[in-house]
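Key result, reporting period 2: structure in, sequence out.
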């Protein structure tokens, strides 16, 4: 999921539970204009950092422990990453999202659209 500065959902892609989130990151960032992209350690890859640099944005991503050369990040800006967590928590207020009642992905995606619209109206 991609959220804005205020923690409102912008884009999302539903994947299988065992799929890593970094596989969908380029699709979420496609065509986006931003000053900075904040993400956690799971998104630390050279390819994603290059994509963010091509957007003329700053990658605020802490380095993974297995990286030999640590890439510094702005800690003050990284503190705002909690906005995506707040976005997920707002979506979890909708029981249908939190427990994933829908078996079909298209139905679940439709409900996420509805819940995201409700969050934007708040």
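The corresponding designed sequence is given below.
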């Amino acid at each position: 999921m991609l959220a804005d500065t205020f923690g409102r959902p912008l884009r999302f892609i539903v994947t299988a539970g065992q799929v890593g989130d970094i596989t969908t990151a380029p699709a979420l960032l496609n065509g986006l204009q931003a000053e900075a992209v904040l993400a956690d350690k799971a998104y630390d890859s050279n390819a994603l950092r290059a994509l963010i640099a091509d957007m003329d944005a700053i990658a605020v991503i802490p380095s993974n422990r297995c990286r030999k050369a640590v890439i510094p990040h702005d800690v003050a800006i990284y503190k705002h990453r909690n906005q995506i967590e707040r976005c997920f928590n707002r979506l979890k207020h909708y029981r249908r999202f939190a427990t994933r009642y829908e078996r079909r992905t298209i139905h679940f995606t439709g409900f996420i659209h509805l819940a995201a619209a409700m969050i934007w109206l708040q």
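Helices lie at 25-29, 46-54, 75-78, 82-91, 95-99, 105-121. The two ends are 19 Å apart (CA to CA). This case is discussed further under Risks and Mitigation.
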